[in-house]
Protein: Adenomatous polyposis coli N-terminal dimerisation domain-containing protein
Organism: Micrurus corallinus
Amino acid sequence: QVEALKMENSNLRQELEDNSNHLTKLESEASNMKEVLKQLQGSIEDEAMASSGQIDLLERLKELNLDSNNFPGVKLRPKISMRSYGSREGSVSSRSGECSPVPMGSFPRRGLMNGSRESTGYLEELEKERSLLLAELEKEEKEKDWYYAQLQNLTKRIDSLPLTENFSLQTDMNRRQLEYEARQIRAAMEEQLGTCQDMEKRAQVRVARIQQIEKDILRIRQLLQSQVAETERTAPSKHGASSHESERQNECQGAAEIIVATAGSSQSSTARMDHETSSVMSSNSNYSVPRRLTSHLGTKVE
């Protein structure tokens, strides 16, 4: 009986020791849970602040993002372009009128001017559309970079968590919290920008449109250069013809002046001969000169 009591006593002591160890372990786990709860509370508060800041950022990005409905397509505005180029043409014509009397033949044809105006206006519209597409691409790239930076930061934090064989409640809670934040950021990115396929498709469409616009711009610039070269070729020939005509007019005017001068000298010589004839008549009264002689001489000289 004594031996049995001793064995029972030792068993009870062992059980009591095990219970005390288990109680100590439970107390340590409870303290760890308190610490984890404190950390979770702090992380929840930080997440709330970050989510509010993220919402503000998303709203700001939505405000900054260019909506395609605002730019349904490229529409020519001939009134604005014609008015601006009309004022430019008026200033050029006024300057040419003040500087030198340039003949009207030196100006380009009306159809050529209208074609160059429309081409220049369309060129401005293409450049505007290209700048808008480039701005959209840049804004979307900045948004994607921001989201990817956030996801990369969370991935680094998850990878930095310690890997232990024994289960740690605090490490597991931290990992779950970081994974939750990563899912939230990815969902916000897909809601804002769409999936990766959508983003890639949008970028390809914009790049293709930009390449087409650049081809059209190059073609229009070559057309304008050819029109300017044609205008420069036709202007000197017309100017030479007008100068030749002015030379002919000057020659005709000089010939007319010579004729007038000859007529004047002839009239003066006729008057002088009449004066001499009258003096002869007065000096010699016996010899009378017929009137038809003076008239005949005057007619012959004229």
